[in-house]
């Protein structure tokens, strides 16, 4: 039998953004994290650091987390200048310490954008996404009782594309990566996941008009086709959805301009 060997422990220096509250000035603070297993996640490493801080009577580092499985999008961190860290297609909670060399300095900060104000330390307020979703990212028409799965035929390529859009977890990496703090990738995914399906057609126009309007109102910037958004997305959502949303938006604007004033804004299928 071959004896199992434990992985070599590593030590790193952390430069963590500390900020007491939304109106407070923030700064980077250095911490030493020693004897870490390379198989622990970055969030587990922060847990270890916080345990040490609490033992010393110091304020632990505030960071958001929930599922720790790359599903919820809560663990939104900028790691060494990249939203969610050095790898593509993973969230911050799926970044492991083996991604960093022994003795490395790791810089950790919150997602930064005007519509994402810092609540404390590494936690940003991303409720702006909730407001965009509430503006039209739903189906309000009565659909009756649940029907058979094959009652409304949907071509498989269309269903697959809708599922690709629905993979968005609303983490905000697209905003953090964009030099304009654009939310176009998020909004286009939420618009497309419903706009591609038959159930989403009655409100297709009002959905895209209202969600884009709310996005602009909240202060997100415009897309300039740099595609940092899709590169940083932990679900690798394609920037092609932005082009799809732009087509839907232009079409919805045109159709709304042809409607009588009393009916302006009423939903209409494309």
Helix count, DSSP H or I runs of 4 or more residues: 8
Topology, number of strands = 7
- How far apart the termini lie comes to 66 Å
Question: Spatial order of the strands in the main sheet?
Answer: 2-1-5-3-4
- As for the number of domains, it is 2
CATH architecture of the largest domain: Orthogonal Bundle
User: And the CATH topology of the largest domain?
Assistant: Fumarate Reductase Iron-sulfur Protein, Chain B, domain 2
Low-confidence stretches: 264-270
**Helical percentage:** 25-40%
Would you identify the CATH H-level superfamily of the largest domain? Answer: Alpha-helical ferredoxin
Look at the helices and sheets and give the structural class: alpha+beta
Inertia-based shape: elongated
Determine the mean pLDDT. Answer: 92
Gyration radius over CA: 22 Å
As a percent range, the share of strand residues is 5-15%
Describe the structure in your own words.
By secondary structure, the chain is α+β, with helices and mostly antiparallel strands. It folds into 2 domains: 10-120, Ubiquitin-like (UB roll) (Roll); 127-263, Fumarate Reductase Iron-sulfur Protein, Chain B, domain 2, CATH 1.10.1060.10. Helices cover 33% and strands 13% of the residues. It is built from 8 helices and 7 strands, in the order ββαβββββααααααα. It has helices spanning 42-55, 127-136, 156-166, 173-177, 184-195, 204-217, 228-232, 240-258, and strands at 10-18, 27-36, 77-79, 82-83, 105-110, 118-120, 123-124. The strands form 2 sheets. A 5-stranded mixed beta sheet has the order 2-1-5-3-4. A hairpin with a 2-residue loop joins strand 6 and strand 7 (123-124). Helix 2 (127-136) packs parallel to helix 5 (184-195), helix 2 packs antiparallel against helix 6 (204-217) and helix 3 runs antiparallel to helix 5 (184-195). The protein is elongated. The N and C termini lie far apart (66 Å). 36% of the residues are buried. The model is unreliable at 264-270 (pLDDT under 50). Its cofactor is [2Fe-2S] cluster; [3Fe-4S] cluster.
